[in-house]
Design a protein that fits this description.
The chain is built from six helices and 13 strands. By secondary structure, the chain is an alpha/beta fold. A six-stranded parallel beta sheet has the order 5-2-1-6-7-8, sandwiched between helices. Strand 10 and strand 11 form a beta hairpin.
């Protein structure tokens, strides 16, 4: 685990997770699909409500008009329909920061610095909730941390070892490879109190998580190698 005992997140109510995605799909819709998948996986734990929070300009939409999303859990089995209310699309100005208990970044890597700058403008100094970076590729966390370095916000570097893909005509999202994991920065003594519970919430998504003191290109490469054999 991240540094504490396992179990369900120790919260008296369901936490609200803000999953940030890049609205622009000009280069790729990977951010949109990954955010949708992560949102479904978190909502499907039964321990969280999720706000999908768009960043930037564009016409991408994360939640269809029906309000329901479909995804394939990483453990296989039947596809799951995540019903209306469990995952909502909420504009940036409304979502940041009052309603959120943690933020998960699934933005396009080239937006990471701009997202960090926008978070600095939106979040209060010394905000006591964590920000997790779960983009694909390395150095996204460094860009976000750089923007928030003087703001007293706990930012945990991380990386997803899977692509989110859309399958079939019903817009079901699935992780590929299905058994691929996540790599997340190990909690320090300073970040433990703020990020321990949220880290355990991420563990309930069903993907294996490895914790590293520092995420490097080597650790990203190992994650990808393991994913190719998942």
């Amino acid at each position: 685990g991240p540094g504490g005992a396992g179990g369900t997140p120790p919260m008296s109510r369901k936490p609200i997770v803000g999953v940030v995605y890049s609205r622009s799909t000009e280069a790729s819709d990977q951010s949109l699909l990954q955010a949708r998948y992560v949102a479904c996986a978190l909502a499907n734990t039964g321990y969280a409500l999720v706000h999908l929070v768009p960043f930037g300009e564009g016409d991408g939409a994360a939640v269809p008009e029906s309000g329901s999303l479909r995804f394939q859990p990483p453990g296989g089995g039947r596809r799951v329909c995540v019903g209306p209310g469990l995952v909502r699309e909420v504009p940036w100005a409304e979502a940041m920061p009052a309603s959120l208990d943690l933020v998960v970044l699934c933005n396009n890597p080239n937006d990471s610095e701009a997202v960090g700058t926008a978070l600095k403008a939106a979040l209060p100094q010394d905000w006591d909730k964590p920000v997790f970076c779960l983009q694909r590729g390395v150095r996204n966390g460094a860009a976000v941390k750089g923007a928030l370095s003087t703001h007293g916000v706990t930012v945990l570097d991380g990386v997803a070892g899977f692509w989110a893909v859309e399958v079939d005509s019903d817009q079901t999202v699935e992780a590929f490879p299905r058994g691929a994991g996540l790599a997340i920065e190990r909690l320090s003594r300073d970040s433990f109190a703020i990020a321990d519970g949220p880290s355990r919430l991420l563990e309930h998504m069903g993907h294996p998580i490895v914790y590293h003191k520092v995420l490097t290109q080597y650790s990203w490469g190992v994650l990808q190698l393991e994913a190719s054999h998942a």
